[in-house]
Each structure stands twice: as C-alpha cells, then as structure tokens.
Backbone:
C-alpha cells in the first residue's frame, strides 16, 4: 500500500501543476492581460512569484514523493536514527530567506507608484478627473465643471468639501481619457466599499470618513467592468458599473453632452446670444 | 508491529488504577460538570465535531447558490422560502457565509485544537495528574454554550420575542466574520446589522472568555506541572505548540474583546468609536461621529492574525509528533522546529496590516507589513523541510494517521506558497477580496489544520476511549476528503486569478465572470462529496467508542508520557507517576535493544565509563 500512497501524493501534485498550466487556455485566468502600465508591472510580479512558487511546489512535492517511496520500500530493520542536520538547517533557512527578501524588496517601486502620493503622476494629481462616492449599491460620480481649472491643492480640497454649481453628476458610468494617468477622489457615503477594475488591476477601499486619491491609466479605449470588492450589505454583488476610457476628444464630447443633459432646458436661445448661452448656464 | 493487546502492565496494575481510590462520582459530576481534563477534552471534541457539521452545512448552502444560483435550495428553500419558490434571498446568502466562517473559526477550529486536544493532551503528555485549575477548565467548556446559544440567535434561530431578531434567518448576522464597521455598527445598514449583530458580538465575547480561561490554564500547567526530568527541551512539539498558542491567545485576545465591547457600545450606547460623522445609511439620520472605521480593522486583525496561528500551530505540533511515531524516527531538527514555532508566533504579532493593504491606511505601513509578512513564510518553510526530513529514511506505516499527516504537509505547502502572492502588496491589490484569498485560507485551515485534526483524532482515540478507530474507514474518509477538498478549493485559485470577488450572491451578473459557472458547479459537487465523507468520520468515531478493537496502553509504540498511562486513564491519569529521562523522539535508537522505541520514562542504567547524559538527551 505504501507505494500506492506515494504515487497518490505525487499524482495530486501533478494534477495541480497541469491544472495551472492549462488554465490560461481554458479561460480560467486573468480576464485579459493588464491594460494599464502599472497593471503590467503587477502582472510581471505575479508571474515572477508564480514561477518561484511553482518551482518550490514541485521541489517539495518531489521530495515528499521521494521520501515516501523510499519509506515504502525500506527493507531495513530500523529507521535511520538521526536527529537532523545542522548544515541542512542552515541551507534551508538562508536560501528561502534571501528569496523572500528579494521578492519583498523587488516590488517596493510598484507599490510606491501606486500608493505613495509624492510618487503619483503630478499632472493627474493637479487636475482630478472626478469624485467617486460609493453608496449602497451604486457609484455616484461628480465631475468638476468643464473648464474648471484647479489652482493648487487647497483649491482641490475646497472642491472636495463643497459641491460647485457647475459640477456634473452621473451614476455607475465613469468616463476617463485613455492613455494618460487620471486621478479620482474616492469616498463612501455610507458603509465601506471597494473600487475594483479587474482589467486595470486597480483596487482601493472606499472608507467612510476618508477621501482617498486613486490614480490609474487605461491603455486602451474601451469600456471596463467596474465592481465592488468589499462586503457592503446584501446587494454587494449588484454594484455593477463601468469605466469608459476614450480619446481626449471623445471625453470632451461626453462631458459636453452631460452638461447639456443636466443644464439645457431645451428652450432655444435668442440668435445673438446662442454662443454665450451655454457658458452662462454653466456658471 | 503495534501492540493492540493489553500489555502485562495492565494486568498487573490495571485493576487498581487511580480512579478506584476516589469515591465514585455521580453521573453529572463525571460526564457533565466534570473537572477532569480528559472529560472536558472529550466534551470539547464531540461539541466541535458536531459544530463542524453545522459549519459544513452552511458552507454547502453557500456553494449551492454559487453553482445553481437562485434555484430552489434543497431543504432550506422549501422550509424558509416557499413563498419565493425556494429561491433564497441575497441577505440570506450573506448570512450563510458569515455564519459559516464564524462557526468554523470560533466553534470548530479554535476549540478543537486548544479546547479538545489541548485539554486532553497537555496534562497527559507532561505527566501531570490534571490541569492546574480544574474548575476554571470546566468553566472554559461551559462558557462555550452561551456562545453557541448567542450564535444561534445571531443566525436568526430562536423566538423573536427573546432575541429581538426580526425577520428570522434573513436577518441573521451578515457582516462577514470580520464585521467591518460601519456596516456592522449602524443597524440600518443591512437586515443582519440589527439585533443579530449584537448577539454575534456577545457570542464572540463568550468564546473569548472560554479561550482565555483555557490559555491561562495551559500556560500555568505547562510551566509548573511537568513531570520530574521533563525539561523544556524534552517537551514533545505538541506541548511546545500548545504552550506558544496559549501565549498568543493570552496576549492577543484582550484586544478583540475590547474592540468587541467598543462596537457593542457604538451600537447600543451611542458612542462613536468606529463611526465617522455625516454618514447617511439607508436614509437614517446622519451620524454625529468622529470615529474611525479603520480603527476596528487594526484592532480586529491585531487579534485575528495571531488567531490564524492559534488555528494552525497546535496542528503543526501534533503532526510533528505523529509523523515521528509513524515513521519510527526522531523528529528532524527538534530545536529548529521549536524556534520556528516561536518565530511564527512572534512575527505573527507584527503582520496584521497585510489584511489592510487596500484599506487606505498609510502606504508606508503597507511596506513594513509586507516585509514582516514575507519573513513569516520563512519559519513555515523551515518546518515543512523538517517534516519531509522526518519522513526521510523512516519506516512509515501507511495508516490513516500517517496519510492525514502527509496530506497536512502537502497541502500546507500550497497554502503557504499562495500566501506569498498576497504578501506582495502590488499583487495583493488585484487579489485582495477575491477567491484567491478564499483558496489560500482554506488550504491552510482545511488542508492543513483539519487534516492534522483528523490524524490526531485517529491517533489519540485509543487513549481517549481504550479502543482503536477503524483504520479502513479512516482511510476511506481520508481519500474522499482529500480528493473532495482539492477539487473544491484548488479551482478557487483560478477564480481569484479571473478576478471573482468574494461574498457575491450572484457573480454571474458580471459578464467577465459568466464563463466560470461550470467550474463553480464542479466545485460544489466536490464539496458535497467532501461533506458526506464527514459522516464516515462521525460513524467511525461513534462506532469505535463502543465496538472498536480494544487496545493496551501503547498501541502505537510511542515514547511520550501519555502512553504510559492506562487507556483510558482513570481519574488522576497515571498509576505510576512518570519520571522523564530523555527527549520524546528516541525512535530506532541504538540504546533500545529489543524494540525500536525508547519511552521517555524508561530508565536505562548507565554502562560503566559512559558519560552522564549520553543517549539520554
């Protein structure tokens, strides 16, 4: 029976490795390759760790299979009388320690870019694209009035504290320009939520009482799925939304349409004031 | 190999064992309010095994919804949701996963390790007649029952007039076992955030009392009541693990209890520890606030991360002992094993922040926690290599005990390695709160801890009841559980990579997750097989209590002190108080001439010219 069990334990680890190997082909893998520069770095890190852990997994399972097989076929009267080996202990302490420390230090720059505010792309920081407020069970979006230029940090803070008359509002549909870093200010109106765009590899909790800046960059123009990743009540699964990344021009047009939708009452303006009409309204 | 027949010692002194010197105890004192650590241990074991079935049933409810969403749930559907055609409600789903985790963590894993095996094994393995504080010990078991009752109320069972939970199981506690405020702090935020959440917090507090009483007892007992000659470095690794776990409990638990009281105060007394100002939940009045939701997360994980090791270390210790016995070989690297246990416990206190990488705490803290988290993988790796080293060159007996132990090591490797992905903060940005996490902790808590426990039940059963468990049934249970476990939890890694968030009642609402439905159905069917396999364990357990093969004191030919006591030991444990002469793992020692083991209590006269201490480590 010993041989059978040795093979049994080897067999399951082979199945595990094969399952991982065929996963990308079967569609049990990332929804797409990362579509943001930061996401690509995260994917690279993922694959680096995947290779290291796969080698370790195979190594330990092979070692396990070997010692089991040897045990099953052991014809000696007695087991080996050994209390261990100092040099082996030293080796298998130092080698993993270096590998782990390497992984730990190697990834710090990616984290810095994503979360340390002084490393954020400054253009994005100076002109936040929107404020996103999570709520049971929807995402509310507030864009600053088109043409609104923020004069420094305190101006942004003022805008975050106090809605302004020209602000544009939508729900569950965030539009951003593609191919450049954009920044949103994330907050929660009620309980905790989490802003998660799988394809862009972005996730940030929305915490009641906090305003958290989040930046990301979509490298393609398309609609990305956007979900909630922190339990927020019975309708947690329903916080379905999308982030539409589009060219600068499309984005401007979108904001313009939004503005018309929100402020245009449909009454035709007088001929001589038609050019100025929109501006008046948006003030 | 193993002597399953009563040894000569039994026939000589077995009749006159300790219990008979005492006056006969009444049924209540002997089996219900017993102060005997063995009875308390067995009470804990039976209670937790029953709770394992409850927690498993809740898990199957979760799995049913994920595989056959919104279709009539068997039993529950017709019973509770006949009006909706058997279709469960999303709030019922959130209750299911919350209570599954709660029951499994607070009523199964923690009490089965510390409560059942800690109680039963500590005095026996250190050669003591009982715990240091027997009455406290009894109370630690009986405080579990108010906890179970409160959890039942939190689940929505119990009459509305008493519990105040309006809406039955739809209003059961549903904030996840982590109970993050403000979802858990403001009653309006979910049906389960009403009275049920208060009951939940009370129940956790009762469990905390129970664990605290246990851990004080274990520390005192291990420090003060070891048999003569049983120095710290002659203690079996089980005892080391229980000792370190008790220290972890004693230091971490007060934080959770305090946090729990703060949350109760927020809910009941109108304080605002965790509630910021201006929050409007479901059109309730705006909060006046000033509190910080992140404070709860820090306090909660300050306990709950060490708690992960509370849920693992005792199993590590027991598996080390069992592997050594089954391979007839000393544990490879005894001292590194002890030091790595201590290192895991020490580092365990400074890694809690890795649960909060995406929470919005100071990102510089995230980096610190990431490095300590990476480093905690190191002692775990050392332990794994030493377990493999223990099997290496041994003569393993491939019985149910050994198979469960090998499964422990094999599956712990997976749980340990998947942890590295999440320890890496940037990768965790993607994996946080996806099924990757669910896969990871099930590999550690089920794959490692529960398989360790299955092995330990089989291994120490003869000492508990004087009979062996059926090994064939044990192996059948093992195979079904092992296959079911892997088929259920391994695909969860892929779900996580595919970006499927946790705690979704209906993930397929989102197009990018639609194609994962068949995989989830496969996992659910595997989970059912695994669930039914546990009935084999229960059957084997009950059957063997009454009809198992009778055994003597030392059926496994093991060295540690508990095997010198009668099976089952009488009141006061040892007929001959043991004296310890050496370490616990002298298997296949050349000093033992006629057998391949050398009990800790066996005295070998020194040969002339031999230095003191030779061979008697």
Residues:
């Amino acid at each position: 029976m010993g041989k059978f069990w040795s093979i049994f334990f080897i067999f399951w680890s082979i199945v595990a490795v094969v399952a991982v190997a065929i996963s990308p082909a079967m569609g049990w893998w990332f929804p797409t390759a990362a579509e943001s520069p930061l996401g690509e770095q995260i994917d690279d890190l993922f694959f680096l760790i995947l290779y290291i852990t796969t080698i370790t997994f195979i190594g330990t399972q092979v070692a396990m299979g070997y010692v089991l097989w040897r045990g099953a076929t052991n014809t000696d009267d007695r087991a080996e009388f050994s209390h261990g080996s100092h040099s082996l202990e030293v080796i298998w302490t130092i080698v993993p320690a270096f590998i782990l420390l390497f992984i730990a230090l190697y990834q710090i720059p990616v984290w810095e870019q994503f979360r340390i505010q002084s490393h954020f792309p400054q253009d994005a920081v100076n002109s936040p694209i929107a404020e996103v407020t999570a709520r049971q069970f929807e995402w509310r979006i507030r864009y600053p009035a088109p043409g609104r230029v923020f004069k420094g940090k305190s101006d942004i803070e003022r805008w975050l504290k106090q809605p302004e008359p020209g602000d544009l509002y939508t729900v569950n549909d965030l539009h951003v320009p593609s191919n450049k870093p954009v920044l949103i200010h994330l907050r929660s109106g009620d309980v905790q939520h989490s802003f998660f765009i799988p394809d862009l590899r972005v996730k940030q909790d929305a915490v009641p009482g906090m305003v958290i800046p989040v930046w990301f960059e979509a490298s393609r123009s398309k609609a990305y799925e956007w979900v909630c990743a922190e339990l927020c009540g019975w309708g947690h699964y329903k916080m379905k939304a999308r982030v539409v990344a589009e060219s600068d021009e499309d984005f401007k047009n979108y904001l313009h349409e939004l503005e018309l939708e929100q402020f245009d009452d449909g009454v035709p303006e007088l001929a001589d004031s038609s050019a100025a009409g929109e501006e008046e309204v948006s003030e | 190999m193993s002597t399953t027949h009563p040894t000569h010692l039994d026939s000589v002194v077995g009749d006159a064992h300790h219990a008979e010197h005492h006056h006969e105890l009444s049924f209540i004192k002997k089996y219900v309010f017993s102060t005997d650590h063995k009875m308390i241990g067995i009470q804990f074991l039976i209670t937790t095994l029953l709770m394992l079935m409850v927690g498993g049933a809740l898990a199957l409810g979760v799995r049913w919804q994920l595989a056959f969403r919104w279709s009539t749930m068997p039993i529950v559907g017709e019973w509770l949701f006949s009006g909706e055609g058997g279709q469960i409600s999303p709030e019922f789903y959130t209750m299911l996963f919350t209570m599954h985790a709660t029951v499994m963590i607070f009523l199964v894993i923690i009490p089965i390790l510390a409560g059942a095996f800690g109680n039963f094994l500590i005095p026996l393995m250190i050669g003591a007649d009982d715990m240091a504080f027997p009455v406290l010990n009894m109370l630690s078991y009986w405080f579990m029952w108010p906890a179970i009752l409160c959890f039942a109320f939190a689940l929505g069972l119990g009459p509305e007039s008493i519990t105040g939970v309006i809406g039955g199981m739809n209003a059961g506690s549903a904030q996840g076992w982590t109970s993050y405020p403000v979802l858990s702090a403001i009653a309006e935020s979910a049906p389960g955030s009403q009275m049920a959440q208060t009951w939940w917090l009370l129940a956790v507090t009762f469990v905390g009392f129970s664990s605290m009483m246990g851990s004080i007892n274990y520390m005192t007992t291990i420090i003060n009541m070891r048999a003569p000659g049983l120095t710290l470095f002659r203690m079996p690794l089980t005892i080391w693990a229980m000792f370190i776990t008790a220290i972890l409990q004693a230091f971490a638990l007060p934080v959770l209890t305090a946090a729990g009281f703060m949350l109760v105060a927020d809910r009941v007394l109108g304080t605002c520890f965790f509630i910021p100002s201006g929050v409007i939940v479901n059109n309730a009045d705006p909060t006046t606030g000033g509190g910080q939701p992140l404070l709860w997360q820090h306090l909660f994980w300050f306990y709950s991360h060490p708690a992960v090791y509370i849920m693992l270390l005792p199993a590590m210790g027991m598996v080390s002992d069992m592997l050594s016995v089954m391979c007839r070989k000393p544990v490879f690297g005894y001292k590194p094993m002890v030091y790595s246990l201590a290192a895991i416990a020490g580092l365990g206190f400074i890694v809690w922040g890795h649960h909060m990488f995406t929470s919005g705490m100071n990102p510089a803290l995230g980096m610190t926690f990431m490095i300590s988290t990476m480093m905690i993988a190191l002692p775990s790796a050392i332990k794994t290599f030493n377990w493999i080293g223990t099997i290496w060159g041994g003569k393993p007996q491939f019985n149910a005990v050994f198979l469960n132990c090998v499964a422990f090591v094999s599956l712990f490797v997976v749980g340990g390695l998947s942890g590295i992905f999440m320890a890496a903060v940037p990768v965790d940005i993607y994996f946080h709160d996806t099924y990757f996490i669910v896969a990871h902790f099930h590999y550690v808590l089920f794959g490692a801890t529960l398989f360790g426990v299955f092995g330990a039940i089989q291994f120490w059963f003869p000492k508990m009841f004087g009979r062996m468990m059926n090994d064939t049934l044990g192996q059948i249970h093992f195979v079904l559980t092992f296959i079911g476990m892997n088929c259920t939890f391994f695909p969860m890694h892929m779900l996580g990579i595919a970006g499927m968030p946790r705690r979704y009642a209906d993930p397929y609402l989102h197009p990018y997750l639609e194609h994962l439905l068949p995989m989830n159905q496969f996992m659910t069917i595997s989970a059912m097989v695994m669930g039914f396999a546990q009935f084999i364990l229960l059957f084997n357990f009950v059957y063997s209590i009454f009809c198992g093969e009778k055994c003597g004191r030392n059926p496994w030919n093991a060295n540690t002190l508990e095997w010198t006591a009668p099976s089952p030991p009488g009141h006061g444990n040892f007929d001959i108080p043991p004296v310890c002469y050496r370490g616990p793992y002298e298997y296949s020692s050349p000093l033992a001439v006629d057998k391949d083991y050398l009990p800790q209590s066996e005295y070998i006269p020194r040969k002339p010219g031999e230095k003191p201490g030779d061979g008697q480590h």
Summary: The two ends of chain A are 83 Å apart (CA to CA). The first strand of chain A starts at residue 130 and ends at 135. Residues 55 and 151 of chain A are 53 Å apart (CA to CA).
